[in-house]
């Protein structure tokens, strides 16, 4: 499962940071996940519950910020919300767009103790 390797990567990053700070546990973790990141949230939740067992994140509170995707049309400069990479500009119908945000998949903040 794609999400499991993502989750394990996130947990490793969090543990590395916590260890570097001399902490024993991660109390809270905040993630930024873009709607174009390709992460399935349901699979992510499932993977998270499984993967955190026995780690420093076992009792941590997880917050997820869903970052809605935005793109800019390269033809008419219109900025608009998109759901898929292949969405066209709503103003001129152009498919040449630049993704401004929505591909995020990162640890935004950690609270350790
Ligand atoms: Zn356009």
From TrEMBL:
Annotated GO MF terms: nickel cation binding; zinc ion binding
The keyword Oxidoreductase is assigned to this record: no
Domain of life of the source: Bacteria
Keyword annotations of the record: Metal-binding, Nickel, Zinc
Record's keyword annotation contains Nucleus: no
Binding positions (Zn(2+)): 73, 76, 89, 92
Binding residue positions for Ni(2+): 2
Signal peptide limits: none
UniProt-listed GO biological process terms: protein maturation
Main function: Involved in the maturation of [NiFe] hydrogenases. Required for nickel insertion into the metal center of the hydrogenase.
Family: Belongs to the HypA/HybF family.
Protein name: Hydrogenase maturation factor HypA
Provenance organism: Mucilaginibacter xinganensis
Gene: hypA
């Amino acid at each position: 499962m794609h999400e499991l390797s993502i989750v394990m990567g996130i947990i490793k990053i969090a543990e590395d940071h916590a260890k570097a700070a001399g902490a024993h546990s991660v109390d809270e973790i905040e993630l930024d996940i873009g709607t174009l990141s390709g992460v399935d949230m349901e699979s992510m939740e499932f993977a998270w519950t499984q993967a955190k067992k026995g780690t420093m994140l076992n009792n941590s509170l997880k917050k997820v910020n869903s970052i809605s995707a935005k793109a800019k049309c390269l033809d008419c400069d219109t900025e608009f919300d998109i759901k898929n990479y292949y969405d066209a500009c709503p103003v001129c119908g152009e498919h040449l767009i630049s993704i401004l945000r929505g591909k995020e998949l990162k640890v935004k903040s950690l609270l350790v103790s």
